[in-house]
Design a protein that fits this description.
Elements lengths: L31 H9 L1 E6 L2 E5 L6 E5 L7 E12 L2 E6 L1
Antiparallel strand pairs: 1-4, 2-3, 4-5
Length: 93
């Protein structure tokens, strides 16, 4: 699941509200949500394309980025698992 749900979350998956789809390298080692994953659970996240948006709120333009050779590339990632009331879930950022 994309959007890290940290090990300490005990509620439902839907109850996890922070937006954790992307993590900042400047705060990985110190933010409680990411700290354990950064120390213990690093991974590669394969992708064939990704999207970024630009422009003002309400008038954003979506841009798709694809590797030149149309191959797969990888982002550096972190993952964790949490025992939620919905069951065990593995997630990543």
């Amino acid at each position: 699941r994309w959007g890290l749900i940290p090990w300490f979350h005990k509620g439902t998956v839907k109850e996890w509200k922070p937006l954790t789809t992307n993590a900042r390298c400047e705060t990985l080692a110190t933010t409680g949500t990411y700290k354990r994953a950064f120390q213990q659970h690093r991974c590669l996240v394969p992708f064939s394309h990704f999207f970024e948006w630009s422009g003002e709120k309400g008038h954003k333009t979506q841009w798709q980025f694809t590797p030149k050779a149309h191959d797969w590339l990888c982002f550096a990632g972190i993952w964790d698992h949490a025992q939620t009331t919905d069951g065990m879930i593995e997630s990543f950022s």
